[in-house]
Amino acid sequence: MQHWPFAGNLAVALLVSLTVLLPAIFFPAQDSLSNSIVDVTLGYFALLAGLSTWTREWVKDLEDRPGDQRAGSRTAALVLRISTSKRCLYALMLAQAVLVLLPPFDSPLLRLWGILILAGYVVLARQLHRAIDPASFHLASQTAKIVMALGIAWMALLAGQLAWTTFWA
Question: pTM for the complete prediction?
Fold first, then answer.
């Protein structure tokens, strides 16, 4: 797969997305309302997880360009110009930012956490804009990890809010 641009990164992103969907596959909800809410929520989480994983993998490929070039790999970061890769990453981050803004939950904690994630995307976009060498792409990769961790925590908060409003309110 290392000779097909996008294939490795998309495979990893797809596997992460499927991991998020495992609870719905192995532990389906008993009633139809709960089942549809869980399916939509897990699908939403899976999409966010896949996009954020794809973003980080692509940033890592930009960081690893010299090594991938020596190895003869054909990653998207090598096939596309750096500027094109950066534009694609900006589009992926914009899509994730829109998804972070979408949930219809009116919780101050969730809004605050969403703002933290959006601030992380802004920092990551600035780092990518300035990145020119493996060290600067490494910094962006580390920031992408932090944004992913914030996203995982946000999803846990969102799931708790959803469970509370669906089952106990």
Answer: 0.82
